[in-house]
Amino acid sequence: MADVCELRVGGQIFGGWTDIEIQRGLEQLAGEFSLQVTERWPGQDAPRPIVPGQRAVLTIDGEPVVTGYVDECNPGYDAASTWFHVSGRDKTADLVDSSAIHKTGQWKGASMARIARDLLAPFGVEVAVGARAGAANQAIPSFNIEEGESVFDCLERAARQQALMMWTDGRGRLVIDLPGTDHAQTALNEGDNILRADGKFSWRERYSEYIVKGQARGHAQHAVKGSAKDASVNRHRPLIVLAEDNAHGPSAAERAAWECTVRRGRANRATIRVQSWRQAGDAGPLWAPGLRVTVNAPRLRIRAEALIVSVTYLKNPNDGTVCDLEIADPRAFDLLSGVRTAKLSSHGASKHGLASGKGDPRGKKKKSDDDDWGSL
């Protein structure tokens, strides 16, 4: 039987949950879960022996999807029923909640991977450097903890300088990497396996021109400036960005191009609901963040390869067992800190048109890199 969710706590396994919500994503450092069971238990007085702070592993069909701790427990009852609600997060949640502390709080010539391992050692969190994260092993001349910042905020600054991302792998490890090029086995097709689709196309965080300013270091410091324009934003909306580190990061022009591309890509999202937590009609692997998937949803005006940014596994009496997939234009993640980190494959979004048209034997017109979902 597929889609079996179990919580392993204190040497015991608890299943039979009637309401399940599990969230995992590339843009959240810690996955989280919320589970509830509501049953008619005549004469049942003892609640499930789960308490906050316990180590917990949440599995789907035996595969860990959240490895961390129980955050909250909420038992309750009335004359007819007993219920128990429990929630928790990955071990990496402590990095979000806790302050960064390490000896002098300063590193000289250390890599991001070394800085991460130093900061994470007291938390018992392992660091995994991915195959596309070579920059994580490159020396950073000087890096300091800023007073009062969390471990995550500290590492996020280092990741931004090195053009990298961080997430967790469901096994409690901090992953330093970039989204890969692995493809889902199943495409998302309107009228077939898409149960529901919600698009979001926004201009709130988009601007007509991005102007990056900073200081370049050398024998003498001098001001640097770069700019990039978003052709889709047709009214005056300039944004000045102060570069974090021009000495060791990308150029001001690259940083401006990144700001434009990433903001455009992250402003255009869609959430697609499918039946089951697994691909290929229960027979395939779990839907997971970081997979690239072909999307054919004409009513959202999306015909493209998309990146699965986050996954929410849901089960409740109203919806049954479903999975919500938040998708985005992969180009929003192919450019990080002004550095082009990957080229899309031959069947990627740079080849796929985002709307049907002439001039392509597959019925899709080719689009330029300046096109975006929200302008169609």
From TrEMBL:
Domain of life: Bacteria
Pfam family, one: GpP-like_1st
Listed name of the protein: Phage baseplate assembly protein
Domain Baseplate hub protein gp44/GpP-like second intervals: 92-176
Location of the Baseplate hub protein gp44/GpP-like C-terminal domain: 252-335
Gene3D superfamilies associated with the record: Baseplate protein-like domain - beta roll fold, Baseplate protein-like domains, Baseplate protein-like domains - 2 layer sandwich fold
Region (Disordered): 345-376
